Amino acid sequence: MDLQVFAACMAGICSHSLVSPGRVLKWTIIANPSAGGFTIKSRWKKHEAILGEYLEKAQSNPLRKGSCPSRTVLESGGTLAQYGFIPTKEAGHGSTITKALIDEAGAYNPGNGADISGADKQGTSPFYLIITAGGDGTSLEVLTALYHAPPPVRSNFAVLRLPMGTGNDGADAAELDGALEFLIKPVKIELACALSLSVAASGKGPFLAFNILSVGLDAFVTHMTNKMKGKLPGDSYKLWVDIASLLYDRLYKVGPMEVRAFDEKKREVIAFHEKVLLLAVGASGHRTYGSRKKILPDDRNVCALKQMPLLRKVALKELFNTGGHIDKPEAIPFNAHRVEFSGYNPILAQMDGETVLLQPEDFPAAITLTDKVIPVLKKV
């Protein structure tokens, strides 16, 4: 891979972007150079070609005069900072960079009595575009920091998530060309909600996710994939799906769970008492995880799977590629704003690829859709 090629192409595209026209655009590319989209040779070659194509397309748009990388990235001292590119160096670095951007943007708020010398001639504060170029972990760090930003500051931001990781379930498009379309064509800024896991009894959390928050078998797969990352070749998630079907019941007892779900007006929509193998809640329907497995294939944002014999698990496993599991008798799909659950055994939860172990004393727990606060790009 050649990070300079990536950074220079992205800078060229951003300098002709149609995001938030009429304002000074400050962009920051937060990248994980270890992500598969950079390190896997075949993927990088494909991405390199797409970048060249979209740079040429972007140059047909007017140049954004005065627009440039953010001060945060320019002062980072990185070798590619001139392009607005800043690599993550350790876990949590994406969050640190985003917090610095939030502080930078806050300095342009006249209500703070702060220096607004970086604003444009009309006194309008710059618009900040954060582009994540990594996997779901990079995206999670950035979005979590932005979620906690003051609303007046956050209103001057938008996020674009490039599919440069292995799974890319939280990205704004499955392929790089689809994501770059948001930069070169007219777009609008919309607010998206997050998911919050709260554990009132023990005070853990709240934990945030922005794609899918789930408990059970898939969280175990995520947990083991994270533990073995770097020790197994290729996409170890697929390997652990197979292994988990054999091991999960031996390591975690699948006992009865009490599940109650409510709509936005706090009306109960469903309640059941079942041995639950998996409970997945999405920020919306039509969500994937585990390298584009279609766990929520339609408009419904929740899917529970009842416990089943081993051979039945093996038979259903492949249906997650197409979403065909949703029509099977073991599936309980529905729409909900809040899902409360209780159990009697330890169970893993996962939030966009990060895991936490819930103990019996942590119940009852709840997964809730938050207010719409994350500014994302949508096609006009």
Distinctive features:
five-stranded parallel sheet, Tumour Suppressor Smad4, 31% strand, globular, 2 domains
What does this structure look like?
The protein is an alpha+beta fold and 380 residues long. The chain folds into two domains: 3-185, no CATH class; 195-371, Tumour Suppressor Smad4 (Sandwich), CATH 2.60.200. The protein is 30% helix and 31% strand. It has helices at 3-14, 36-39, 41-58, 71-74, 93-106, 136-147, 151-154, 176-184, 217-228, 236-251, 310-317, and strands at residues 25-31, 68-69, 85-87, 127-134, 157-163, 187-199, 207-209, 212-216, 256-262, 268-282, 287-289, 293-296, 302-306, 331-334, 338-343, 347-351, 354-358, 365-379. The strands form three sheets. Strands 6, 7, 8, 9, 10, 13, 14, 15, 16, 17 and 18 form an eleven-stranded antiparallel β-sheet that branches. Strands 1, 2, 3, 4 and 5 form a five-stranded parallel β-sheet that branches. A two-stranded antiparallel sheet has the order 11-12. A hairpin with a 5-residue loop joins strand 9 (256-262) and strand 10 (268-282). Helix 1 packs parallel to helix 3, helix 3 (41-58) packs parallel to helix 8 (176-184) and helix 9 (217-228) crosses helix 10 (236-251). The protein is globular and about 60 Å long. It starts with a helix and ends with a strand. Residues 110-122 have low confidence and may be disordered.
